[in-house]
Structures are given as C-alpha cells and as structure tokens.
Amino acid sequence: MQLIDGKAVSSQIKKEIAEEVNRIREAGGKIPHLAAVLVGHDGGSETYVANKVKTCEEVGFQSSLIRYEEDVTEEELLACVERLNNDPEIDGFIVQLPLPDHISEQKIIEAIDYRKDVDGFHPVNVGRMAIGLPCFVSATPAGILELLKRYEIETKGKHCVVLGRSNIVGKPMANLMMQKAYPGDCTVTVCHSRSNNLKEMCLEADIIIVALGVPEFLKADMVKEGAVVIDVGTTRMPSSVTKSGYKLTGDVRFDEVSPKCSYITPVPGGVGPMTIISLMKNTLLAGKKEIYK
Ligand code: GUN
Q1: CA-based torsion, 237, 240, 241, 246: positive or negative
Q2: Nearest residue CA, atom 2 of ligand 1?
Q3: What is the distance between the alpha carbons of residues 167 and 170, in angstroms, rounded to a whole number?
Q4: Selection from 127, 119, 74 nearest residue 100 by Cα
Q5: Pocket test residue of 45, 49, 77, 94 for ligand 1, highest count of atoms within 8 A of CB
Q6: What pLDDT shows up at residue 140?
C-alpha cells in the first residue's frame, strides 16, 4: 500500500507557483489577485477562507477578503459580485458556500463573470469541462486529477466508482474520469444515497472516489484487493484530544481499508491540501488570461 501524500504534493506545487509569480514580477507583469467573499461566521467556512488567503500570501498573490454579516441581502451580494466582475485589478474571485438560506446560491454563482470564476462553478465552466474545452475546473476534482498524475496511477480502461453526486465533487469527478485523456479513459459508475447496489459496484471498482460526507462510510468488505481509494470526506467530529475541539474524519474507514489498497489518500493530508492549491492554480491561469482573454 502506498500513501498518497497530498500535503507533500501541494507543497511542491506551491513552490512551483511561487517561482512563476517571481518570474511574473521580474518581468514587470501583473501579480495575480484573488478576492474571497465570506458571508457570516460558519466555523468551517472561516477556516477554509483563512487558509485560501494565507496560501495566496505564501505563493505571492495579492488577495482581498470581503466580509458580510449573515443578514446581508441577496441584492447587496449581487452588487458585490458585479463590482468584482468589473474591477480590472481582480483576476478571479470566489463566494464561499454555503450561503444563508435567504440567498439563492445558484443566482450568485450565475452572476459571477465566468472568466473570473476560479471555483469553476459557473454553468459556462461546468459545461465546457463536460465537453472537454479549456475552462476553470473546480478545485477538488482538479486536485484529485493532479494526485493521480503525480503518482502516475494508471486510469485507462479502469472501472472508477464515484460515490456522491454533488455539483462540486461527484458530478465533475465522474465527468473528468471518463474524459478521453490522462487521467481519465475510465469506465465510470456513479453511486449515491439512493443506489441499491452500491456495495457490489464498489467491489468491482479499480478506483473508488468517495465524496459522500458520511464519516467512515467505506469499509474493507466493500473494497477489492489492490484498489485505489481517494477519500474526499472532511467531516468535523467533536474531539476531546485536539486543541481545536474537533477532528477531521474522512469517508473511509482508513485502518481496515488501507491494507487492501494499492494507493490511498489519508484524511487529513490527502485531498484537502490539494483543493486549495488547485484554486491557486486557477487564479494563476486567470491572472495570465490563459483560459479566457
Ligand atoms: N464550500 C465548500 N467547498 C467550496 C469551494 O470549493 N468553493 C466555495 N466557494 N465554497 C465552498
């Protein structure tokens, strides 16, 4: 069994991005600038956004954090999106999800200029990804592809089972694993909370990507010997032993599943660090106008 070290890979990519920013600076070019919009004070969102801003600093990007209280109106938020769309200083921006119930997430996402949508959530980017055109690919699936690539994991002709059908991970992941490319060229099955034969499907899988948000869902008796297992779960479970008071728990029962795997991602330190670095890569592409002019 080989552990897929997302922390090490993300550190390496961080260095590569920082070197590129240095080259841009030396050539007198524009330093990429990411803006993040954060509504309210959800603990998870606060942590994610703080990490995004911190990583911007580490790679040498400019960053702006725009905060609103929980009671911000949809109109105010739409006006903010419009300002960022029209601000030539901002190369890309994200609106951290989830948003409060009185705001339509879809309306906000669709208001973002797709050329600045470094989250890759806008229907133009999702559609272009689905038909294999250059676009911003959302960060978690992009990070997983990068891990498969850097560990040179064979994907052609393999059976990949994706557990979960969210717009952010499951759906784009399934699409990317079936694309005519490397990583890709898989036969893909998507299972979800209403699937009847999930266990049988998993037992057939050469690669299992678990993105259900159900702690320790995947057990040893669901995994074929030699499978590759990618764990996207990051549920915060209360813990009395950590300083933060919680422990990140994956969707895989790691202790019993890992001995059966050829490769497996741990939680934390697997997919998580790759997600932020993929956002940085998209911001770099946005700054260099490499995808859209
Ligand atoms: N909430 C959970 N993951 C994400 C993400 O990748 N981007 C944004 N904007 N919100 C999220």
Answers
A1: positive
A2: 97
A3: 6
A4: 74
A5: 94
A6: 98
3-state secondary structure the chain: CEECCHHHHHHHHHHHHHHHHHHHHHCCCCCCEEEEEEECCCHHHHHHHHHHHHHHHHHCCEEEEEEECCCCCHHHHHHHHHHHHHCCCCCEEEECCCCCCCCCHHHHHHHCCHHHECCCCCHHHHHHHHCCCCCCCCHHHHHHHHHHHHCCCCCCCCEEEEECCCCCCHHHHHHHHHCCCCCCCCEEEEECCCCCCHHHHHHHCCEEEECCCCCCCECHHHCCCCCEEEECCCEEEECCCCCCCEEEECCECHHHHHHHCCEECCCCCCHHHHHHHHHHHHHHHHHCCCCCC
The verdict on the CB of residue 117 being under 6 Å from ligand 1 is no
Ligand 1 centroid, distance to 97 Cα (angstroms): 5
pLDDT at residue 293 greater than cutoff 90: no
pLDDT tens for each residue of 247-284: 999 999 999 999 999 999 999 999 999 999 999 999 99
The per-residue pLDDT of the chain, averaged, comes to 97
Copy the structure tokens of residue 16: 């590569």
Which pLDDT value is given to residue 52? 97
What pTM value is reported for the model? 0.96
d(CA 137, CA 79): 25
The answer, yes or no, to whether any atom of ligand 1 lies below 6 A from the CB of 278, is no
Check residue 279 and give its pLDDT.
Answer: 98
Buried b or exposed e, range 230-258, using 16+ CB within 10 angstroms: bbbbbbeeeeeeeeeeebbbbbbbbeebb
CB 64 within 8 A of CB 35: yes
